[in-house]
Every structure is written in structure tokens, then in C-alpha cells.
Amino acid sequence: MPRDIIIDTDPGQDDAIAILLALASPELNVLGITAVAGNVPLPLTQKNARIVCELAGKPDTLVFAGCDAPMTRKLVTAEHVHGKSGLDGPQLADPTMPLQDQHAVDWIIDTCRAAAPASITLCPLGPLTNIATALTRAPEIKHAIAEIVLMGGGYFEGGNITPTAEFNIYVDPEAAHIVFSAGLPLTVMPLDMTHKALTTKPRIDAFRAMGTKVGDMTAAWTDFFERFDMEKYGSEGAPLHDPTVIAYLIQPELFTGRHINVEIETQSDLTLGMTVADWWRVTDRAPNCTFIGDLDADGFYKLLASRLATYS
Ligand code: BDR
Ligand code: CA
After folding, report:
1. From the candidates 82, 177, 241, 259, which is the catalytic residue?
2. What is the mean pLDDT of the chain?
3. Which residues pair with 43 in a beta bridge?
4. Atom of ligand 1 nearest to the CA of 242
5. What ligand 1 atom has the least distance to the C-alpha of 81?
6. Distance between CA 210 and CA 263 in Å, rounded?
7. Cα of 117 from ligand 1 centre, angstroms
8. Exposed/middle/buried for 263, CB within 10 Å: 0-12, 13-18, 19+?
9. Rounded distance, CA 169 to CA 155, Å?
10. In a mutational test of the pocket of ligand 1, which residue from 168, 224, 229 has the highest number of ligand atoms less than 8 Å from its CB?
11. Listed residue (164, 165, 197) closest to 299, CA to CA
């Protein structure tokens, strides 16, 4: 039986590749995609999510628009990484598939209320506003959530939007605090691991060699945001963050981590949005997540390429 998942996302080129990976994977049943404001404002993230579904040949995927701003703060965006559209690179046509009428948070609540216990996996790939709002408004939906696997945070690697904070957590730290303290099974894909999942030239060439629209777009998207990250980090490629969430659901053995306590800094101006990870277990704070530290990068790219190659 495929696993029922909800992808909560702010596409984003790496979000787009994560969506393509999920929609090509028979182990997963994408119940719906919920857009949130993040990399770019909500009107663009919901549109980009639909562009990606159409690229995947899945225009019947349910796409919902959710929160257009963090729970208590002003939205911070990342056009400097993803471009003005959020999905810069070769332009794809505007989508013709519909955006669902219902608000994403209401749909998440309704879907979880109607679901069997521990039957839905949430996959947040952006700021945690939609998920935290749903959990706050309807805490009883926890019964339906099997697990949350999210991209966010960083500890040994520091931050990418401030010296100590990763973008998804920084944009809505109050929402992150709610999710990290929800008492649900939680797996976190932080920068510590995604910075080892680099888009090297042979890996991008493998996408291009598919000779398909999906292969070409994946190569072009990785080329696009690679420029920014390679300049910044001086690395041989850019980290491909969000697809690691989906890969973890399919092949968890590619990843290793520790079950530890992670708290979110919501007070300090200097370290706002920091994921304070007790990696060395020096406190007696109870573990609340599995914090991933390493991956088999070749295995990850092999999985990604093999699944993207199934698109004609
Ligand atoms: C995260 O922030 C976004 O820019 C990416 O899509 C990813 O989800 C990385 O910090
Ligand atoms: Ca994202």
C-alpha cells in the first residue's frame, strides 16, 4: 500500500524537484499539495506548485493555497536564491489546472479528521506556517499524523539566511516551535546533511541526458540555483535540500541521524530561528526528533535520477 502524504511547499526549484520525485514514486500517494508563502509570496508558490504538477503530467493533483504570511511576523522571501518567480530558469507556461477553492489549512484539518489513525505523513518543504496553524486550530488532527518529515534547520553547518538560522525555520520560528513541540514523530533534514547532497556536474548531466522535458527542467533548475550557492560556499555544486525529504520516505537507509532534542530560538534577535540541537546529548531535555546528519549522496542521486527518468 502506498503511503499517503501531504506536501506542504513554497516552490522553489528544489521544492519542484521534490514534487517531481514524489509524483513519480509508486511508494507514495500524494493526497494533495499545500502551498505556503516562503521563497516567494503565496500567489507565486501556489502557481509554481501547479506548474510542476502539469510538468509531471499530473494536472489532477489537488493544489491548495494556504497562509500568505508567518503566524506573527512579516514574510521574508528568498528571491536572491530562487529568482523573481521562485522558479527561475527556463520559463514554463502558466498552469491551466485549477487551484482548489478551500484554504490549505482547512483542507489539512478536514483530511486528517477523516483519516484513519496514524495514516498520513506530512512533508513540509517550506516555512511551517500552514502545519502549525492546522495543529493549533485543530489539535485533534494529531491522531491521523503518522509522521512529519521536514526540511529545515542546521546545527554544525550554521545557517543560510543568518549565521545561525536556516531559511524555513527563520521565516516562521513560532510555527517551527509549535511543530517541534507537538509530540509527533518528527524527522528533520537539516543543512548539516543537505550540504552533502551536492549537484555536481556529472549529476546534473545525468538529468540532461534523459532527453525529456522533466530531465531538461531539472538540469536547468539545478544549474540556476547552483550559481548562487557555488559562489557563496565555493563548493563543487549546490545543495539540493527538499528532495531529501521525499527520498527519506522511499529509501530511509540512505540517511543516518540521531534521536535528540531540538529547540527553536524564538526570542533572540541575534540567533532567531536557530535549531538548538542537543547532538551531544549534554542536556536532559527529552528527544523530540530524529535529526539527520549524513546521507549516501550517490545513492540519493541515483534514486532521484531513476525516478525522474520514468517521466516520458
Ligand atoms: C530551504 O529554503 C528554501 O530556499 C529551499 O527551498 C529549502 O526548502 C533551504 O534552506
Ligand atoms: Ca522549500
Report:
1. 241
2. 96
3. none
4. 8
5. 4
6. 42
7. 30
8. middle
9. 12
10. 168
11. 197
Q: Where are the beta strands (DSSP E) in the chain?
A: 3-9, 28-35, 63-65, 120-124, 145-151, 186-189, 255-260, 262-264, 275-277, 289-295
The answer to whether 246 and 29 are in contact (CB under 8 A) is no
pLDDT of residue 202: 93
Place of cell 489539535: 139
pLDDT tens for each residue of 111-168:
999 999 999 999 999 999 999 999 999 999 999 999 999 999 999 999 999 999 999 9
DSSP 8-class letter at 269: T
Q: Report the number of secondary-structure helices (H) and strands (E) in the chain.
A: 12, 10
Domain ranges across the chain: 3-308
The pLDDT score that the predictor gives to residue 229 is 66
241 is catalytic: yes
Ligand 1 pocket residue status of 165, Cβ below 6 Å: no
With a 6 Å cutoff on the Cβ, whether 81 touches ligand 1 is yes
Q: How many CB atoms lie within 10 A of CB 202?
A: 10
Cell of 4: 499517503
Which pTM value belongs to this model?
A: 0.97
pLDDT of 252-296, one tens digit each? 999 999 999 999 999 999 999 999 999 999 999 999 999 999 999
Cα 245 to Cα 269: distance, rounded to the nearest angstrom: 29
Beta-bridge mates of residue 264: 275
Name the least confident of 48-57, 67-76, 146-155, 219-228: 219-228
Q: How far is the centre of ligand 1, averaged over its atoms, from the C-alpha of 241 (Å)? A: 6
pLDDT recorded at residue 106: 98
CB atoms within 10 A of CB 3: 15
3-308 CATH? 3.90.245.10
Q: What is the distance in A from the centroid of ligand 2 to the CA of 47?
A: 14
